[in-house]
Write a structure and sequence with these properties.
This protein is mostly helical and about 140 residues long. About 75% of the residues lie in helices and about 0% in strands.
Length: about 140
C-alpha cells in the first residue's frame, strides 16, 4: 500500500482512537488473565503487542481505504479501492498470524486473541448505554 499525501479525515482519526483505546484496554485485561492463570511470560507481552498493534493498524488501513473510496469518481473505482485494501490487509494478517504461531518470541494465543478486539469494541460501542442522546 502506497500512502501518498493523504489528509486523514477527523472521523478516521477519532474512530481509530476509539479502537486503539479499546484494544489497549482489552489487552491489559488479557495480560492480567495470563498473569492470574500463571501463564504469563515475555512471549505473552510480545504476542499481545504484535496482535494488538496489528489490529489497530488493520482498522486504520481499512478506514483510510474507505476514505479514499468515497472520493472516487465511480462506484466501480470505489469498490476496487476497497477490494485491493481488503486483499492487502488479509495478506498482512496472514503474515502476522503465521509469524505469531511459528516464531518462538510470541505466544500464539496472545497474538490471535487481540485480533478480535476491534470487533468487540465496535459491538460494545453500539450498545444503548454507550449511545449519546440524539444518536441512533
Amino acid at each position: 500500500m502506497v500512502v501518498r499525501n493523504i489528509k486523514i479525515e477527523p472521523a478516521v482519526k477519532l474512530e481509530t482512537k476509539h479502537i486503539a483505546i479499546g484494544v489497549v484496554s482489552m489487552s491489559v485485561i488479557m495480560e492480567i488473565v495470563f498473569l492470574v492463570i500463571g501463564k504469563f511470560d515475555y512471549t505473552v507481552l510480545l504476542g499481545n503487542l504484535l496482535g494488538g498493534g496489528f489490529a489497530i493498524l488493520n482498522f486504520f488501513l481499512m478506514a483510510l481505504a474507505v476514505q479514499r473510496s468515497v472520493h472516487r469518481e465511480t462506484p466501480e473505482e470505489a469498490k476496487l479501492v476497497i477490494q485491493n485494501s481488503y486483499t492487502k490487509r488479509l495478506l498482512l494478517l496472514a503474515a502476522v498470524v503465521i509469524a505469531g504461531i511459528k516464531l518462538p518470541y510470541f505466544h500464539w494465543v496472545a497474538v490471535i486473541i487481540p485480533l478480535l478486539f476491534p470487533r468487540i469494541v465496535i459491538f460494545v460501542k453500539t450498545l444503548p448505554i454507550f449511545q449519546r442522546k440524539g444518536e441512533e
